[in-house]
Amino acid sequence: MASSEDVFRKYQEYVATSFVRKVEPIAIAEGKGALVRDIDGKEYLDCFSGISVSNTGHCHDKVVKAIKGQADKLLHCCTYMYHVAPAAELAERLAKVAPEGLRKTFFCNSGAEAIEYAMKMGRKFTKRHEIIALMCSFHGRTLGTLSVTGQWARRRYDMGPYLGGVSFAPAPYCYRCSLGQTYPDCGIQCAEMIEDIIEYSSSNNVAEFIAEPVLGEGGLIVPPPEYFKTVKKVLDRHEILFIVDEVQTGFGRTGKMFGIEHYGVNPDIMCLAKGIASGMPLGACIAKAEIADSYEPGDHLSTFGGNPVSCAAGIASLEVMLEQDLPKQSQLKGEYLLRRIRELQETESMIGEVRGKGLMIGVELVEEHENKTPAQAKAAKIRELLRMKGILIGVGGVKGNVVRIQPPLVITDEQLETLMDRLVESMKEAR
Q1: This prediction's pTM
Q2: Which domains, and CATH codes, for the chain?
Q3: In this structure, are residues 405 and 363 in contact, taking their beta carbons and an 8 Å threshold?
């Protein structure tokens, strides 16, 4: 087996990584449940899940068995030139668990591809071309998905121009409200402003509104409970489609099968990836039948979309999700973690806000509370300290100061205690 040094050297010489922030590398060799092990044998508690992917845990026995069984029979045939049973079966199962009205699925390879498909489809169906997105949002790194990503650091000037016809509404970021309001006395002004954006920032040709139920890369921003109901009323008045980006929030991550279920509204189109197949490359976009059927021959295709091995993994992952009631597990474990971290907040002045749903938790760090000065260096320091203690987390947010905790949904109570113990230690050391 190669050594860590061999892997690091080959990455440096042969793998393009200039777009990745420099952190201490780890050469992962294997994983099981919520644990991963590097080439040198050091074990880590994975509390980031490969960016919210390994919801059923690493190498779940049922998922691995399904992958091996399908790989023995068929690896590829192009699912849109021919028909394969795993794609048909997974599409049917998704229609049964998706929000009401969503029926037909397009399979692809990633979240960004799913969103590209959704944006094109919305334009095709409505015969309009403008889009409303949210500030602080993140939807991918293709030119199309960057066009609806509301973070200037992602939408670099040297990679444009981006799509025209995109307007950005204020994010439901209550801790840093760009409108200077305080919830709940604000009247959800950020949602109501979408009416003004249609009226004053568009040419009355808006096809769709796209949003994440919890803004992941933006800093795990949780909109107020009534936010999407208010938005949906505006959209319905103008016959604008609602695209929900569930790439990160889907498949039990937030304590429900899909994040939008927390808000009591049904989208017209839903985009999926990450947790859909426990790590196998698969993305999906499920829509109302009449919207999905608006595409015509030649409008879209994916050579590898609906790959039979990935779809077999998706079927098994969904079965595990339902059999073990992982959304409920995520809810209960998330409530416990939120309570424990909020107790820690009482003694740790660097914690500005603790927020999240299910096992999708963000801890925003600040230098001082009055001005909420972002503490990026402390967030990075805590990630490094935790790595040294055998815990893997993420850091993100539009200010780069949010500690991201998104472990596999199968993480045990004992492992949660280990996480909390190490987090307390690391925060003390990072003061």
Answers
A1: 0.96
A2: 4-59+325-429 (3.90.1150.10), 63-323 (3.40.640.10)
A3: yes
